[in-house]
Specification:
Shape: globular
Number of domains: 1
CATH architecture: Up-down Bundle
Strand content: under 5%
Number of helices: 15
Order of helices and strands: HHHHHHHHHHHHHHH
Helix content: over 70%
Distance between the termini: 38 Å
CATH superfamily: MFS general substrate transporter like domains
């Protein structure tokens, strides 16, 4: 198969393999850490979880990145990205150990959330840096394929890490603190893996003009506006980011729904709920993997807009058909479909941003990308908190999400048709 052959070519690139190893270890640690937090907040017997509680936790952990994101971009465009991976993962390993100690202690909830916030704050730098560094280890012709393999492999690694955390929790009746310490070990391994990459390979270019750091930090708002203006000039990238933001919102709303269904509607015990959540993660992971295999071919066949619009349209049809029964089997099928749709859209959007924006702005644009991701997810959780009943069954949420998918598909496919019409007009001339 051409895709398998091309993947083999990518994996023969030494520095691509090394960057991929950093990503896999880092994101597997993310999966372990996040599942440990989720089981503590959602599935602990002493916690009577509500959609509002989940939304509040997401807001505490994610909304501050709306402030951190622009600063991350300014720094990523001047710091050696290899060093960001090294010191960022070392810092997260230490902070994860602190979180484990807090889980074993009787401390106020705000202190626990503050510790978790610090770990995931550093994550903004690492993930944005990984995306910004990818074009430095892969040629432009294989960038779509690299975006299929690398971020998708990272997502699968995060899912595998989450599955490992669930398995440890279920099979050994281990504490959440033990699982968090496993995440700390994986962060440490990711830091060590980054040392295999040359310090200056991943950019940014040292000869690029930069203002002084103090000036850059005090004028972050102006830098953000400059990034937005640059993005406005790259309309294809802006449209793709808009579509991805809405699709992320949909995914967030359905994530809260599945959490509540696993906690209250589908299981009589904590262990059964965790097992069902593990199955849902596995179904999404299978969808991510399918997206990695299909997207390079689909983008070549339908174009980037055609593929994003087609994915959103498929989700608009299949999500209510599979979700409205509110039973495990159809919902697991929906998890696969929406995993495929979300990851396929992300792969395509990553490629659009990487090829449409200048390298000097790439770090800032990917930081804005992360900000949009977080705002969309928190907004989705807030919407779900208002609409979801205690057991998670809500026709309103399922139908609203389907309408949003349909709107994305309509807007994107209309743009695709306009492009095709313009192309035919130019060819006739």
């Amino acid at each position: 198969m051409p895709v398998v052959r091309d993947l083999g070519v990518l994996l023969r690139l030494r520095n691509f393999r090394r960057l991929l190893a950093v990503r896999l270890l880092s994101q597997s640690a993310d999966g372990v850490y996040q599942v440990a937090l989720a089981t503590y907040v959602v599935f602990s017997p002493e916690n009577q979880t509500t959609p509002g509680a989940i939304a509040s936790a997401m807001a505490v952990l994610l909304l501050p990145y709306s402030l951190i994101g622009p600063f991350a971009g300014v720094l990523l465009d001047r710091w050696p990205r290899r060093q960001v991976f090294l010191y960022g993962n070392l810092l997260r390993a230490g902070l994860a150990c602190c979180t484990a100690l807090l889980l074993l202690s009787a401390v106020p909830d705000w202190l626990f959330y503050a510790s978790a916030l610090c770990v995931t704050a550093v994550n903004r730098f690492v993930l944005a840096g990984l995306s910004a560094a990818l074009p430095r280890v892969v040629d432009t012709g294989r960038l779509v394929l690299a975006n299929s393999l690398s971020p998708t492999a990272g997502t699968l690694a995060a899912t595998a890490g989450g599955g490992l955390a669930l398995a440890i929790r279920l099979l050994t009746d281990g504490s959440d603190a033990t699982v968090v310490l496993l995440g700390a070990v994986l962060y440490l391994l990711s830091a060590l893996a980054s040392l295999t990459l040359p310090r200056t390979l991943l950019g940014p270019d040292p000869d690029l003009h930069h203002v002084r750091l103090r000036e850059a930090l005090t004028t972050t708002a102006l830098g953000l506006l400059a990034g937005l203006r640059h993005l406005a000039e790259r309309r294809d990238a802006a449209r793709a980011l808009g579509a991805m933001t809405v699709i992320r919102f949909c995914y967030g709303a359905l994530t809260v729904m599945v959490l509540m269904l696993c906690r209250y509607a589908w299981a009589d015990s904590e262990s059964d709920g965790l097992a069902l959540l593990g199955l849902a993660l596995g179904a999404s992971a299978a969808g991510f993997f399918a997206a990695a295999l299909i997207t390079p071919w689909a983008v070549g066949r339908f174009g980037r807009y055609g593929w994003i619009g087609g994915c959103a349209g498929a989700a608009a049809l299949l999500e209510p058909a599979l979700g409205l029964p509110f039973t495990p089997a159809p919902m697991l099928a929906a998890a696969f479909v929406l995993g495929l749709v979300t990851q396929a859209t992300k792969i395509t959007t990553d490629t659009e941003v990487q090829t449409s924006v200048d390298d000097a702005y790439r770090g800032r644009i990917f930081s804005l990308y992360d900000v949009l991701f977080n705002i969309a997810f928190v907004a989705a959780a807030a919407m779900a908190a208002l609409a979801l009943p205690a057991d998670g069954r809500s026709v309103v949420v399922v139908v609203a999400v389907a309408v949003l998918y349909a709107l994305v598909s309509t807007v994107i496919l209309r743009r695709r048709r306009m492009e095709l019409t313009d192309a035919r007009t130019r060819s006739d001339e």
